[in-house]
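Trying the structure run again after the queue cleared.
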Amino acid sequence: MIQVEGLSKYFGSIKAVDNLSFHVKPGEIVGLLGPNGAGKTTTMRCMCGITPASEGRVIIQGADLADDPITAKRELAFVPSEPRLFDYLTVREHLGFFARLYSAADSETRSLHRQKVQQSEQAGESLLQELDLGDRADYLPGALSRGMKQKLMIACALIHEPKILIFDEPFTGLDPHAIRKVRRIIQAHIAKGAAIIISSHLLGMVEDMISNAIILSQGQMLVEGSLKELRQRLSSEHQDADLEEIFIQLTSNNAQSPA
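Done. Tokens:
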């Protein structure tokens, strides 16, 4: 569902992402991990078409992101680490806006457009209740806490039932109840055959969620594989290591200053 081939991104003379290649199958959650400044966010932004890649290709559900961006983007959703919301749209208006935006992209006839909008709006109301935003539906973003803004971003991303989800630090600012609900939502999409990429420094939070992990260092892929495969790269005394210990052991020789 996701193919990344030879992806590189330059910022002047700095190579933020260096010849990165990987793929994600239906029903997989891949953890994109790495120290600060490793290139995780840049990689995800390139995969969504927010930042144009300098080299390489991103294929989403068979559509080349560079050649056919509308088809590729309608299949995916991106949740950034910092909520980006419209100051003068309420919570419910945000969901209505995204419902119409994605339905318009899909519509072939006016009646089909109306049907898709209605379906998305119904999904939006369900998400409001599921994420405990129902009593904040008429609030503007300025009246929301950091965690509520994050939940609204997640709801907006999910409203068109995307087949591909890309999360950058999705649990930041969420309380334990919200974290549990978001995890359940993610698992429900996996059960439907979605492909998910998730980046997080809360390794204990994602360890039991991910199918495979990709660890980046200085823009390059350091290792890729399941937790079992990553443990095999460690010495014998670390064969029972959790994801945090695996990460520390594998990146200790590639440490870099925070960015």
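Residues 1-75+163-259 form a domain with the Rossmann fold fold (CATH 3.40.50.300). Worth checking whether this holds up in the mutant runs.
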